[in-house]
Design brief:
Strand content: 35-45%
Shape: flat
Mean pLDDT: 84
Largest sheet: 5 strands, antiparallel
Number of strands: 20
Helix content: 10-25%
Number of helices: 3
Low-confidence stretches: 13-28, 163-169
Distance between the termini: 139 Å
Structural class: alpha+beta
Order of helices and strands: HEEEEEEEEEEEHEEEEEEEEEH
């Protein structure tokens, strides 16, 4: 009888332990500090990854780890904050941080870093989990937010004065979170313009510019290729256009360089094939420009003039000596 009670109690404790493990397992994912090699001293700190992309269901919770490395050569204090971001009015602005304002695709209430502040010695790296919790009533579409990291000397050093107190906040880095809540969304966007800064170049690196407008409600990742042809229609080069992101409701600028070299001459055409980033839809655009290597031609002309003068001088002096 006593043995039976013992087994009943043991089984009860076991069930409680198992339930506790399942309930509190997510909380066990604590931060940790690792040692890193900082030789030579880079005099900076690093936050990674720079971007995190997730597809989550309403009501789903997950976490990702951020890596913060102190390579400043001294012990520093770090402060963690959350902000929304959006696309800027200027197509050349990658993102605009909104500070205390709430963005149209706000994620700030659903991003939860494990720490709000901490200290690291130089040569240490913080591995810090960030929990992303999507509410059950979240609508399908984008949620955008950033985890920001500021650094300053420890408070006790600021209070003591000296060099450390001259600059309280030394720098700021951020990592962007792009969360797509699953469900029906509107994917829509297109290349609205391609071109270059000027119509005539003397050679070297020639910028190929693209303006892409996102008219949907989720961010898109277009990419493509530019084919360069000469006046006869022959392909002289191809330039890869790596993926870039365009936020909802914003026009995004992208530029890649064509290394034309010094010996190109004539009229050239850049033919773009840009994948919109959804549905395998391709936008085709093109523009023309001229390459006239006048600097090279001017230098060559100068060299020829000098050579002619030198030949005449030598010819004159050789005749004199012969006489």
């Amino acid at each position: 009888m006593k043995l039976s009670r013992f087994f009943k109690k043991t089984a009860g404790y076991t069930v409680i332990i198992i339930i506790g493990v399942f309930l509190f397992a997510p909380l066990a994912q604590a931060y940790r500090i690792e040692e890193i090699d900082v030789s030579p001293n880079n005099n900076d700190f690093v936050l990674g990854p720079g971007k995190t992309e997730l597809i989550l269901d309403p009501g789903e919770t997950t976490s990702r780890e951020l890596l913060i490395s102190n390579r400043l050569g001294r012990r520093m204090e770090f402060q963690v904050s959350i902000e929304d971001f959006s696309g800027g009015e200027d197509p050349k602005d990658v993102v605009v941080l909104l500070g205390d304002k709430r963005g149209p695709y706000s994620l700030k209430d659903f991003l939860h870093p494990e720490l709000s502040e901490f200290e690291l010695e130089s040569g240490e790296r913080m591995v810090m989990p960030v929990t992303i919790s999507i509410p059950a009533d979240a609508e399908p579409g984008n949620l955008l937010g950033a985890v920001l990291l500021r650094t300053s000397p420890p408070k006790q050093e600021l209070e003591q004065g000296g060099v450390a107190s001259q600059v309280k906040i030394e720098s700021q880095l951020g990592t962007l979170f792009f969360v797509r809540v699953s469900g029906p969304v509107t994917e829509a966007g297109e290349v609205v313009e391609v071109g270059t800064e000027q119509s005539i170049y003397s050679g070297g690196d020639i910028p190929l510019d693209i303006y892409y407008k996102n008219t949907g409600n989720v961010y898109l990742v277009p990419y493509g290729i530019a084919t360069i042809t000469n006046m006869t229609g022959s392909v002289v080069d191809q330039v890869e256009i790596p993926p870039w992101f365009a936020l909802p409701g914003a026009t995004r600028f992208r530029s890649v360089d064509w290394e034309s070299g010094l010996f190109r001459l004539g009229k050239y055409t850049a033919d773009f094939e840009i994948n919109r980033g959804y549905g395998d839809i391709i936008d085709e655009k093109s523009f023309t420009f001229w390459v006239i290597p006048w600097k090279f031609a001017l230098g060559l002309f100068g060299a020829i003039v000098v050579l002619v003068i030198l030949v005449k001088w030598l010819h004159k002096h050789i005749k004199i000596r012969v006489k």
